[in-house]
Amino acid sequence: MNDDKIRISPDALIAMIVTEALDRELEQMPSLEEMNEDFHPSERFQRKIESLVRETKRKAEREKFLSNIK
């Protein structure tokens, strides 16, 4: 038997094939920059994000306040 040959398990071979197929698909997708150029959030989405930011800031301030009391 020739030990110079590389042996690949069937699982590794399948993983390589799937990875290559996914890479080809991803190459055809637009980049994040391209997608962001076309992305215009709805007013409802924008309000929800702003609400989450305000709530996060309030929680951070509350935690800061509570940590100063202890």
Sum up the structure in keywords.
70 residues, mainly alpha, 76% helix, elongated
Structural description of this entry:
- The longest helix is centred in the last third of the chain and has 27 residues, at 43-69.
- The protein has one domain (10-69).
- The chain has helices at residues 10-28, 32-38, 43-69.
- It is mainly α and 70 residues long.
- Which H/E pattern describes the elements? HHH
Characterize the biggest β-sheet. Answer: none
**Rg, Cα atoms, Å:** 25 Å
Count of discrete domains? 1
Q: How much helicity do the residues have?
A: over 70%
Class per helix and strand makeup:
mainly alpha
Determine the mean pLDDT. 81
How much of the polypeptide forms β-strand, as a percent range? Answer: under 5%
The backbone outline, from C-alpha atoms, is elongated
Quantity of strands, as a count? 0
Number of helical runs? 3
Span between termini: 72 Å
Low-confidence runs: none
